[in-house]
Every structure is written in C-alpha cells, then in structure tokens.
Amino acid sequence: MNLATLALPDTNRRELLRGELLATVDLLKRRRAADIGKGFVDDYVAMHWMEWHGGSLRLTTTGENLCKHLSSSLARTALRTAA
What we know:
The protein has helices at 10-29, 40-46, 61-82, and strands at residues 50-53, 56-59. By secondary structure, the protein is mainly α. It has one domain (3-82).
C-alpha cells in the first residue's frame, strides 16, 4: 500500500518516511531492496529524497543531507545518554 493512499497528513507521512530513511538506506546498501516496506520507495522518490538512476535507486542530494542530519542527531542523543 502506498503511504499516499493512507490519507495521512503531510507532516505525519513525512515523519514516518524520515523515521525509516536510515533503515531503508541500510537495506539498499546491503542489496536488500525487497525488504523495504511496500510503498516506501515511491514515497521517497515523490519526496525527492531518492531517485532512480540506471535501474537502481540512489539518494538525492536532499536525501544525503537528511541522512547526515539524522545520523548526527542519533550520535548526539547517544552521547547524551551515555553521559
């Protein structure tokens, strides 16, 4: 099911996609695209966070920047919890 068909408000949809982005990128790196939730790829492409390139999926510049931001936020949170 495509997330757009769930009639979620844009902010909820965006947050759901954002929350799953790092895990999705990890699946792509491990060549496990079949394990990505149904509809997520279409939504990432629609959000311009990913794009099709020669038959494979890759992050756009926006997607790369978002991944860096999310990774940085996770690292800061981990440091605070460890202290």
